[in-house]
């Protein structure tokens, strides 16, 4: 049988005869909105396929109507209602950016045989449950529980929040912690025979994204082993696990092997008993692979590259020890996009002599997308990624390909601190934000200009969030180097984020300082944050700047861009601010993304001139 959500509240169950059940869940009044996406969401059949498990917002009492003293014949509220009457404006915490409607999740079970809906009891009050699945005997539920005391910190794109794997016995109501007491976990995945439970585990606190370990619990004995550990320094064989989640179906039919994605680009096969890793996509001409599902050893995946939209491919997983070479069969191929070529550049920081730490000279990477038509040298748009602990993998990005078709080269910089290059690289950025990341990005620009047919006199910056933080520093450092800059959701004033961001802990961690919930800022720390902030050097900026912000951004307040916009305008720097009333940090949505790209492209064409395409060496001013 299959199932689907319709509008986040209507659950439909389909079988070979068509739609067998259609249930309006929220109309039953047992809970609030259903979680259909995000870190808490799940939808799981019991093994008997008679019950469905999902997560929804806990139901709250509806607000009382206004006091009816001026309504003829109206009665005063009953005494027992007085407690609720004054609570309609009580603040309820939520889980931050992109999760503003997620406050108190509850586990729910829909019984299709008994046609009943129940909210499970027994989850400790200090936990927010999610990512649930049925235990092997259907007598219990396994879930991830996030601690939300003393208060919630932003969860989106943060794999460092304290959480655990729990088992809730439905008969006794007993809730058992299966993972470490103080860890950060996600993605419990039960093997086909129900004997083993895989999950990802990281450290609490520190970088908000990090290298994770793969853990496996034997269900009967409750013993846990580490299958793959955190990788400090990557090797050609294995660089570590960094994905925010395991694929929903990742186990092979033998109950021994599993598959996972490994940023920045590969699919890995893991033998959970031998603790070995096989790269299934090594040597592929494609840039990025993503596993969609693994069903009885049939692999379904997509592969793409900067010049190639995703293609759907399948393969049958051979017996253990015979996996390579794996024969991928295209199901729906997509043609390459004309006018775009790409390559990976290795950037080597200079050595200053003895006494340097290994991380100070560690090489990093950048992806260069170039027009394959037109006449070089090409104008260059430089893009440091946000995060900062994220990565530009070599996947298809329509906006970047479109910039190439407009005649621009694009440099996607994975400065040290990016994901996929070992935990030591991630940790190297702590206490060095605004310094190491900025220097790395400029070094990538200089080496790209030296090696490739690029125009050093027509450079621009395009970035968002922490990438915009880096870009603003570059504008202040090199006031005459860049001719245009377009930024999304920019970080410009670090101390101001302490009271406005859903992740205030990052402001301390980025400076190499430990964070605690009861911490309050001191003058010295605030001063350090301000000195690392681009707003403190805004007087040096001369480059025209386009700012794009979402009014509902919880991660980086839109007032950051507004403050910067006012400073630039007051100093006579060409600046334009685009304000999206319903936009969040990612400025997601088709209409918003299209408008942002259109305005950024016009900004570059206006300030860099039309790229040369006619072989004359001329461009429009």
TrEMBL record:
Entry EC number(s): 3.4.19.1
UniProt KW keywords: Cytoplasm, Hydrolase
Record's subcellular location: Cytoplasm
GO term, biological process aspect, one: proteolysis
Acylamino-acid-releasing enzyme N-terminal domain span: 11-318
Gene3D superfamilies named among the record's database cross-references: alpha/beta hydrolase, TolB, C-terminal domain
Domain Peptidase S9 prolyl oligopeptidase catalytic as annotated: residue spans: 400-609
GO molecular function: omega peptidase activity; serine-type endopeptidase activity
Gene Ontology CC, one term: cytoplasm
Classification via InterPro entries: 6-blade_b-propeller_TolB-like, AARE_N, AB_hydrolase_fold, Peptidase_S9_cat
Primary residence: cytoplasm
Lineage top rank: taxon: Eukaryota
Reaction it catalyzes: Cleavage of an N-acetyl or N-formyl amino acid from the N-terminus of a polypeptide
Record has Cytoplasm as a keyword: yes
Broad EC category: hydrolase
Family stated for the protein in its record: Belongs to the peptidase S9C family.
Quaternary organization: Homotetramer.
Name of this chain's protein: Acylamino-acid-releasing enzyme
Provenance organism: Geospiza fortis (Medium ground-finch)
């Amino acid at each position: 049988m299959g199932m689907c959500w319709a509008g986040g509240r209507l659950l439909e169950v389909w079988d070979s005869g068509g739609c067998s059940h259609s249930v309006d869940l929220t109309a039953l009044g047992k809970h609030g909105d259903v979680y259909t996406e995000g870190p808490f969401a799940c939808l799981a059949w019991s093994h008997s396929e008679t019950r469905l498990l999902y997560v929804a917002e806990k139901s709250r009492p509806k607000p009382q109507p206004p006091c009816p003293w001026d309504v003829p014949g109206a009665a005063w509220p009953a005494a027992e209602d007085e407690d609720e009457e004054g609570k309609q404006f009580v603040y309820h915490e939520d889980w931050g950016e992109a999760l503003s409607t997620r406050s108190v999740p509850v586990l729910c079970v829909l019984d299709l045989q008994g046609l009943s809906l129940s909210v499970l009891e027994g989850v400790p009050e200090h936990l927010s449950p999610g990512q649930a699945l049925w235990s092997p005997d259907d007598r219990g539920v396994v879930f991830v529980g996030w601690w939300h005391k003393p208060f919630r910190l932003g969860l989106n794109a943060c794999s460092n929040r304290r959480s655990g794997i729990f088992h809730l016995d439905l008969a006794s109501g007993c809730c058992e912690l299966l993972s470490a007491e103080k860890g950060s976990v996600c993605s419990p995945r039960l093997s086909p025979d129900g004997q083993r439970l895989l999950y990802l585990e990281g450290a609490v606190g520190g970088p908000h994204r990090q290298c994770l370990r793969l853990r496996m619990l034997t269900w009967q004995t409750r013993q846990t082993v580490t299958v793959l550990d955190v990788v400090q320094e990557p090797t050609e064989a294995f660089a570590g696990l960094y994905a925010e989640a395991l694929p929903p179906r990742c186990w092979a039919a033998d109950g021994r092997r599993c598959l996972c994605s490994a940023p920045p680009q590969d699919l890995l096969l893991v033998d959970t008993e031998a603790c070995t890793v096989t790269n299934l996509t090594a040597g592929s001409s494609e840039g990025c692979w993503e596993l969609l599902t693994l069903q009885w050893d049939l692999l379904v995946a997509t592969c793409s590259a900067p010049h190639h939209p995703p293609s759907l491919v399948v393969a049958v997983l051979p017996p253990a020890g015979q996996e390579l070479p794996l024969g991928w069969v295209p199901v729906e191929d997509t043609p390459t996009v004309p006018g775009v070529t790409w390559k990976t550049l290795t950037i080597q920081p200079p050595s200053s002599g003895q006494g340097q730490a290994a991380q100070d000279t560690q090489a990093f990477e950048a992806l260069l997308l170039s027009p394959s038509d037109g006449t070089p040298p090409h104008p260059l748009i430089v893009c440091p990624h946000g995060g900062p602990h994220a990565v530009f993998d070599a996947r298809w990005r329509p906006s970047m390909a479109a910039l190439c078709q407009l005649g621009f080269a694009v440099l996607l910089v994975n400065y040290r601190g990016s994901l996929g290059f070992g935990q030591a690289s991630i940790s190297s950025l702590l206490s060095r934000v605004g310094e190491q990341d900025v220097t790395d990005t400029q070094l990538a620009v200089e080496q790209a200009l030296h090696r490739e047919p690029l125009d050093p006199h027509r450079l621009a910056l395009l970035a968002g969030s922490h990438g915009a933080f880096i870009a603003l520093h570059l504008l202040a450092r090199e006031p005459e180097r860049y001719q245009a800059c377009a930024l999304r959701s920019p970080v410009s004033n670090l101390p101001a984020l302490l009271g406005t961001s859903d992740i205030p802990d990052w402001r301390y961690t980025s400076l190499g300082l430990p964070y605690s919930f009861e911490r309050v800022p001191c003058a010295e720390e605030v001063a350090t944050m301000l000195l690392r902030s681009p707003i403190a050097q805004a007087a040096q900026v001369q480059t025209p700047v386009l700012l794009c912000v979402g009014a509902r951004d919880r991660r980086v307040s839109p007032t950051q861009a507004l403050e910067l916009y006012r400073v630039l305008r007051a100093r006579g720097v060409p600046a334009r601010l685009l304000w999206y009333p319903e936009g969040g940090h990612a400025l997601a949505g088709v209409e918003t993304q299209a408008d942002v790209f259109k305005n950024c492209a016009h900004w570059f064409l206006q300030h860099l001139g039309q790229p040369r395409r006619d072989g004359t060496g001329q461009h429009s001013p």
